[in-house]
């Protein structure tokens, strides 16, 4: 009688035969070539195209000069906060008085310029996460940012939402065999800030997640593109979009007029000192402008900006407590009692000194005198001087 081996008993033998066959086949084939590594942008060092579209949709239809100014200023988020607070506190300061007032501030000139357009500063301050991401994307890859703006403008034009109006001139040029959309204010010395719904102005939005918006969800947008009341800016807005090179540069004549300087280099140069410890949000920007290994220095800079007002109050509280302690000790020596000598002055003063250590990265950024002192060592975002 023949005994049949149970099927489960064959499994080890079958497995062994399979792997021997695979090994022989592999040995007979040439070794596979390793796949080439992806470019840095594809590996996540720069910003994805989806995020670029979402970040730039709220401003792509702004006049070229204002777009350039926003892009440069967005690389200094702390100073945007300070400038927005200053503009809110000084709404009547305009024209020549504004130029003079800006000479007293230690912000980067790119930020000072936007004091002439306080509504834009307010939007950047109220949407701080967007501002910082926009600046980091711009620093990581200017060409991709500028190219994205042109694509968005092309979509808006196709949707019938980009055209010449009493507030703006829209024209097209062919640059390197590509159509470039140029937007200029109808009056060079006046800025009309556009208002539009970025989700609909470009046609049907092509991603599952909507773009960023300057206004809260309940805001009622005008149909197409509307405009705020024109703001006289004079020479304050000196940014320029160089569509041929896909980068941002400087109108040196207007820059010198507003900033009382005499630079010659029109190239934009980011000044990392004006970041004031704010880290760069993507690998590409961090590699270009980070100080590598200076994490401790960045942390110290952040701490210097945290809770300046609270720190001042805490210092005052500590001084008061110390004075109270001294009085208590005098009373103890005079009366011979021990209870007065047990004054909690030391612990109170220490607690007061620690009280100012809290707060977020942007807390207390609007203290004028302390802000100016802390940022005085920074130079302008320009090619004619300062940090390169």
Produce a short descriptive summary.
With 388 residues, the chain is mainly α.
Describe the structure.
The protein has 388 residues and is mainly α. The chain folds into two domains: 49-294, no CATH class; 298-325 and 341-374, no CATH class. The chain contains 15 helices and eight strands. A two-stranded antiparallel sheet has the order 1-2. A hairpin with a 4-residue loop joins strand 7 and strand 8. Helix 2 crosses helix 9 (142-158) and helix 4 crosses helix 7. It is globular, with a radius of gyration of 30 Å. The relative contact order is 0.13.
Record the SSE blueprint.
Layout (H helix, E strand, L loop, with lengths): L10 H18 L20 H8 L7 H10 L3 H13 L5 H9 L5 H5 L4 H9 L1 H13 L1 H17 L9 E8 L2 E8 L4 E2 L2 E3 L28 E3 L3 E2 L6 E4 L4 E4 L1 H8 L23 H7 L5 H11 L2 H28 L9 H11 L12 H8 L13
Antiparallel strand pairs: 1-2, 3-6, 4-5, 7-8
Helix pairs in contact: 2-9, 4-7, 8-9, 8-11, 13-14
